[in-house]
Design goal:
alpha+beta; Jelly Rolls; 2 domains; eleven-stranded mixed sheet; 28% helix; disordered N terminus; binds fe (ii) ion
Length: 309
């Protein structure tokens, strides 16, 4: 959604004031902050079951990740089957399943103004932060669920509501987030998972998230998550700024050029004017869709009412 002026009957102070350090760290380093979104009552069982009952099938992802001893993940995706919302909730609570309701900012009328208000408050305290687009995902996950090492193209604020989870956040450098990896993600040649080795954990910053805590990190910083306890509910809000749009467009164009055997410079050595040129080229490339999207046809390999977790 486009960020609009905040209006209507929303609670003020959803994101209590930040310290000078928090303001300085935002988007520069991993940082946590307090939030009050859970006080809306929108994340209790009854409200979630009703939401699951009415949520559009095409925006409803169900995933199970199988992990080997080295922590490498294999993704199985499913469909919700014919279960009512309260039984879907029970299915999530009982296993390793991870349900993702995409585009929640556009499909949850009651939550939408609170997302707008929370970002309005953050924006008001950071003169350099100008998000131009927000997309939300409501993530419901089992006590034993894990999300493998991956990176997201937009910026992310993860607002945690229920349960406890631990997140490892890694540097967004060439060793942990190779430039070609981000090109592949943007060209949708792979899901957002990246090669991971256990020894990378030595450089990770680790945070335990409890209800009422939110976390954010620098753009493209890889991360992985392990739930620690209880049924977990989190709202993940992706934000794009003009800076992230231009950078991601430049990575997209570079990915196409690389596939054509053309030289590609390191992004760290690519000045802003050249990035803007690459971003403009990416818009034309997307229009003629040069790369087949391999993610769309991911197998839907199980139904929730038949799943063995
Ligand atoms: Fe993520």
């Amino acid at each position: 959604m486009k960020l609009e002026a905040v209006s209507g009957p929303v609670e003020p102070n959803l994101v209590p004031a930040w310290t000078t350090d928090q303001c300085a760290q935002f988007r520069k380093a991993p940082m946590t902050f307090a939030h009050r979104l859970a006080e809306t009552g929108l994340f209790e069982d009854e409200a979630l079951a009703a939401l699951l009952d009415r949520y559009p099938d095409e925006l409803f992802d169900i995933n199970i990740y199988d992990f080997d001893d080295e922590g490498q993940a294999r993704l199985r995706t499913g469909v919700r089957g014919r279960l009512p919302g309260d039984q879907v909730l029970e299915g999530i609570k009982g296993g390793r399943v991870w349900v993702n309701l995409r585009r929640i900012e556009a499909n949850h009328e009651a939550l939408r103004p609170f997302i707008q208000a929370a970002f309005g408050e953050i924006k008001a305290r950071l003169p350099d932060f100008n998000p131009v687009q927000l997309n939300g995902q409501l993530i419901l996950s089992a006590p034993q669920a894990k999300v493998p090492f991956h990176a997201d193209p937009p910026g992310v604020c993860l607002f945690h509501m229920r349960g406890r989870k631990r997140i490892w956040i890694y540097p967004a450098d060439e060793e942990h987030m190779p430039q070609t990896g981000m090109e592949d993600i943007l060209l949708k040649q792979q899901t957002e998972e990246l090669p991971y080795r256990r020894d990378m954990d030595r450089v990770a910053e680790v945070f335990d998230l409890s209800p009422g805590i939110a976390i954010t990190w620098p753009l493209h910083a890889p991360h992985r998550i392990e739930n620690q306890e209880g049924f977990n509910v989190s709202l993940s809000v992706d934000f794009q700024t003009w800076g992230s749009r231009i950078l991601n467009g430049a990575h997209y164009a570079n990915g196409i050029l690389r596939r054509k055997g053309l030289p590609v410079a390191a992004m760290s050595a690519t000045p802003m004017a050249a990035r803007v040129g690459l971003w403009a080229a990416s818009l034309a490339m997307k229009r003629i869709s040069l790369v087949e999207d391999k993610i769309v046809n991911l197998d839907r390999s199980f139904e929730l009412d038949g799943v063995k977790t």
